[in-house]
Amino acid sequence: GWCPLSPTGAQTTQLLVEPPWRPAALWDRVTLTCQGSGTPGATTWYKDGQRWGQQGRDRLSVTRSGTYRCDRPGTRRSPPVRVLDDPLVLQVPAWALLEGDTVTLRCRG
């Protein structure tokens, strides 16, 4: 994946969401993938601000609701991804949107 450099030159870390809708829903069997520079397999996961789960794996299957982030040595922590446990979730696409784009919203449950 394409990974932009931040102005300071520190690599940013991206958190990919599958399926690619946000906010993610727990019943959607969400998988998070940590992408960025740094050492593959040296990923640290965070849930609600605390270190979470097995360190090292680049992919995480989400089984609990919360706010997830990841990082690797030498990279910044990724933007947060929320996973909700609500029975009905209004979702927008997780890919980048520009002003003027037509957006399809999903109301799912």
UniProtKB/TrEMBL annotation:
InterPro entries: Ig-like_dom, Ig-like_dom_sf, Ig-like_fold, Ig_Fc_receptor. GO terms for biological process: cell surface receptor signaling pathway; immune response. Residues 7-70 form the Ig-like domain. It comes from the Eukaryota. Gene3D superfamilies: Immunoglobulins. One of its GO terms (cellular component) is external side of plasma membrane. Keywords: Disulfide bond, Signal. GO terms for molecular function: transmembrane signaling receptor activity. The keyword Isomerase does not apply. The keyword Signal applies. This is FCGR2 protein. It comes from Molothrus ater.
